[in-house]
Amino acid sequence: MKVSEINTSVSAVNGVGPAMTKQLARLNVFTVGDLLQYYPKKYEDRTKKIPLKDFQTGGFTNKVHTIVQITGHEWFGYGNMKTLKLQIHDGTAAATLVCFNRPFMENAYPVGAIAAVTGKFEVKYGTLQCTAFEIQKLSENGALDEYKNQLPPNSRVIPIYALTEGLTQKKLSTAIENALLQYGKGIDDELDIELRLSHQFLPKQKAIQKIHKPETLEEAELARKTLAYEELFFFQKKILERTKKRGNANFSKEAVTTGEQNNCQLSIINYQFSPTQSKLLEALPFSLTEDQQKVICEMNEEIDRGFKERNDILISENPVCTKPPFTMARLLQGDVGSGKTLVALFLALRIKDHGGQCAVMAPTEILAKQHAETAAKLLGPLGISVAFMSGSLKSSGRTRVLKALKEGQIDLIIGTHALFSADVVYKDLQLAVIDEQHRFGVMQREAIIAKGRKSEKAVGPSVTSTSSVTKGSSVTGGKTYTFEPHLLMMSATPIPQTLAMTIFGDLDVSVIKTKPAGRKEITTYLVKEGNEQNAYNFVREQLKAGRQAYFVYPAIGESEDADEFILTGDGKENSRGLKTATSNFEKLSKNIFPEYKCALLHGKVGEEEQERILKEFQSGEIQILAATTVIEVGVDVPNATCIVIEGADHFGLSQLHQLRGRVGRSDLQSYCFLIYSEKITETGIERMKALRTSTDGFVLAEQDLKIRGPGEINGTLQAGALEFSVADVVRDKEMLLEARQEAIQFIIHNA
Questions:
Q1: How far is the CA of 684 from the CAs of 336, 680, 702, in angstroms?
Q2: Distance, CA of 364 to CA of 388 (rounded, Å)
Q3: Which of 317, 398, 681, 731 registers the highest number of CB atoms within 10 A of its CB?
């Protein structure tokens, strides 16, 4: 039996009562199988004694694991605050155990008693002490020398699990040990035996036992690797099979050498621009970068292929294709200012050439409007009908747009999530483009794709359907096929290779690395709080030269969440110590830069007011824009050469890079000032150093993954959970690559 098939309720495990069942449910542990697969997040090695004198060299920071003698009792404080201190000595050094809320320990551990102690120690007030410790009495009295060569009890590798309120390590470990005793036998291997043996991995049953109860750290690591590889292999196999179903699996045995894919004979498609695309190319006041041209051409080829196969199915008496046609599914990664939006417009023209419609979905109305204005300016002269839609569009205007969209009078529509509202109907949506894809969830992406899902009847002979909707059906001539639109997801937040291979493993990835000619590297300065005036003086010189500047803050100021955002008496910072946009705007406009026009922009500013402010900033009427992260994407002002990010250590690395990308959008030299707190953490310091040394978003994305880990990165991406129980895409990068290759070989050999 597979461990995941052990569906017996966790309450059947000895020692797991109703209260603990509820606690485990909060950890998404409902069955015995869930409990056995609730793996430790780390281990504590207690296989060696660590005396007091070596507290700074323990396996864990400042860890001690030793046998001591109680040498005295001491009390401090008064009344209810009176606290006991146990004085201890282990033959190498003396220390103090501070027993908060544990006065009973005076009698439990009398002077002269021998005890085993484990805990983290630190020097405080000139004394080595510990406040959080484990203690176990070995005898009421005796000679400490008798224990000199003896290990403390529980000297083993201790698994450490993630907990929830009311659940302790001891309770959870005991429950898992009982589950292993009751249900830990007869667990089947899931990896192919040859694959397991080739890597010298453990059988699944033994791996589960050893990951929970290892005798050494080496045993624990082998068990972890066994289970991690299995997890990564089956994950890759699943997404590769999904890719193959779509017909764009370049690892299949067909097509690689014969030019056939998905049982369809492909024509050779030249990497050229269509006549309409060529007109746009000629109209541009600049040249496309080499990377832009490359990704446009590769996606042109895929769009053309899908169109050819679709027509072959629908109008041929004897179609070559016996499966649904190829559908493009791509992730386009490009650093800030690399020209991804322009690529999308070129693809919209290709779709227009084939008689279809294109929808571009942006996360904010500001960004959607900017895209729509750009598209109308560039594509309107070419006879392309462009429309805009958002939730705030007035009823009369919305009715006209919906009618034109349904009748096919609109070629390109750009908007927010309103594009997949219930009343939106497309005549023939052939391409869905999702900009800033990390702002959208899986269900939202599926909703826009569903708007383009279309059933049509073929004229060919009887065939068996394999489409997602009509799978298994078989009819004579006039069989119904379901077609889906091509999908392009765009991201200005470069995604590390390992994450792209997991979250987006079923997509082809295109990359734009080259920036438009003439762009200069942004110079980044780190400024400690208290030295801001230096940055302000520099900005003033830029303003005198006719340039513009952004000032960005991590918080608006006031919030409905009073616990999170409460202004202090001086009106400068909220309860979390964050500088706020509302309080500092007045300081900027009245005290620091009174001679320049300033404006404030944040999420609570009305949409019309936001639009007015941005237009005035773009036109140069406003010289300084104070804002929150509402300007993170979509704001393009070439004359802005300075951005000052206050409280920079409260932002993530990728977000800081995105904000920095608001400047450097012309051939003018641009500057970024990162103002950081005196209380900056080690992680914050790493982020600041990374930003100072690199402006490459792809390099920074890998750094961000290392600093923050996959869980946090994935939360930022909102791309679907990395539901790995034990694998870690940072630590196990090489294993992930290997698992992918072996999953490919498995699919090929079992096709």
A1: 22, 6, 16
A2: 12
A3: 398
With b for 16 or more beta-carbon neighbours within 10 A and e for fewer, the 722-747 pattern comes to: bebebbbbbebbebbebbbebbbebb
* Bridge partners (DSSP) listed for residue 329: 487
The per-residue pLDDT for range 119-139, each reduced to its tens digit, is: 999 998 889 999 999 999 999
Among 638, 640, 613, 636, which residue's Cα sits nearest to residue 551? 640
Q: What is the DSSP letter of 516?
A: P
* Pair 393, 413: CB distance under 8 Å: no
Q: Is the pLDDT of residue 565 over 90?
A: no
Burial class, 51, CB count within 10 angstroms (exposed 0-12 / middle 13-18 / buried 19+): middle
Dist. CA 86–CA 104, nearest whole Å = 12
Q: What are phi and psi of 453, to 5 degrees?
A: -70, 125
Helix (H) or strand (E) holding 130: strand 127-130
- Using pLDDT thresholds of 50, 70 and 90, give the confidence band for residue 501: low
- Identity (one letter) of the amino acid at 347? L
Q: Which residues of 243-268 are buried (b: 16+ CB within 10 A; e: fewer)?
A: bbbbbbbebbeebeeeeebbebebee
Which pLDDT tens digit goes with each residue over 171-211? 999 999 999 999 999 999 999 999 999 999 999 999 999 99
Helices (H), 284-391: 290-315, 340-353, 365-379
| Helix H or strand E segment including 658 | helix 653-660
Question: Tokens in use for 321?
Answer: 């294709």
Average pLDDT, the chain: 84
Whether the CB-CB separation of 478 and 491 falls below 8 Å is answered with no
- What does the radius of gyration of the chain's CA atoms come to, in whole angstroms? 32
DSSP-derived secondary structure letter, 52: G
CA 86 – CA 100 distance, rounded (Å) = 11
Stronger pLDDT, 264 or 656, i.e. the higher one? 656
